[in-house]
Design brief:
It is built from 7 helices and 11 strands. The chain is an alpha+beta fold and 247 residues long. Strands 2, 3, 4, 5, 6 and 9 form a 6-stranded antiparallel β-sheet that branches. Strands 1-11-10-7-8 form a 5-stranded antiparallel β-sheet. Strand 7 and strand 8 form a beta hairpin. The longest helix is centred in the middle third of the chain and has 25 residues. The model has no long low-confidence stretch (mean pLDDT 95). The protein binds calcium ion. Calcium ion binds next to helix 5. The site of calcium ion has 6 residues, from helix 5.
């Protein structure tokens, strides 16, 4: 009934300027789950937050067994999984004084049949390359994006703005987090990219698109090319890329 196939690859890199990597990703093919988290709050704590987020999301979705549910139930599952991740991070902060201020972004894609369920909090992104065009499926919860939406800042200015790293929503800052969830129908030939801001602050969307067009035949090659391009541009941040191809 459903002949659509997906295959994915993920890569994370410390970049050229940082001495630790607070990004995490998970790629669980049998669950159709592809996710990225970008931790913050300083070295050890940032790593704890992103790992806790990824582990909790995988565990929650595994327990629910997404193969048996429809797209609408799946959006609720993604929301619940990210909610649960937030709850556990907040709990961990309460129990550990040295984790105060830690948090993480999250961007997750759950494939259910021929639907992609996309959930996110913060400025990690999901892109879709379809028919040669690149579109963003997420809208950053960041200070600069709020200014762009208000018409106070151009996309170009936002890309270079000194406050571009300020997120306005993250896991770990309050007990109830608002999760943005969307559904996208998957078509054969689609290429999805889940990434941390270490990719899209170093590269313009057009450059991400061109790199995908040149290397998209293989998710592994596409990941390597994107990470390399971000590092060539300066590699100012940890960079994480998960590429999912649909056939
Ligand atoms: Ca980052």
């Amino acid at each position: 009934m459903n002949a659509l196939k997906t295959s994915g690859f993920g890569l994370t890199d410390v970049g050229r300027r940082r001495d630790s990597n607070e990004d995490e990703f998970r790629l669980v093919e049998e669950l159709g789950l592809f996710a990225v988290a970008d931790g913050m709050g300083g070295h050890a704590a940032g790593e704890v937050a992103s790992r806790l987020a990824m582990d909790t999301v995988v565990e929650t979705i595994r327990k629910a067994g997404p193969a048996t549910i429809d797209a609408l139930q799946a959006t609720e599952l993604v929301r619940r999984a990210i909610d649960e991740a937030n709850r556990r991070i907040c709990e961990s902060i309460q129990d550990n004084e040295d984790q105060r201020g830690m948090g993480t972004t999250i961007a997750a894609l759950l494939r259910v049949g021929d639907q992609a369920i996309i959930g996110h909090v913060g400025d990690s992104r999901v892109y879709l390359l379809r028919d040669g065009g690149l579109q963003r499926l997420t809208s950053d919860h960041s200070w600069v994006n709020e200014q762009v939406k208000l018409g106070l800042l151009s996309e170009e200015a936002a890309q270079r703005h000194p406050m571009r790293n300020i997120v306005t929503r993250a896991l770990g800052s309050r007990n109830d987090v608002l999760v943005d969830v969307a559904i996208e129908k998957i078509l054969p030939g689609d290429l999805f990219v889940v990434c941390s801001d270490g990719l899209n602050t170093m590269l313009e969307d057009d450059e991400i698109r061109d790199t995908l067009l040149e290397n998209g035949a293989s998710p592994e090659q596409a990941c390597q090319a994107l990470v390399e391009a971000a590092n060539d541009r300066g590699g100012e941040d940890n960079v994480t890329v998960v590429v999912v191809a649909a056939q």
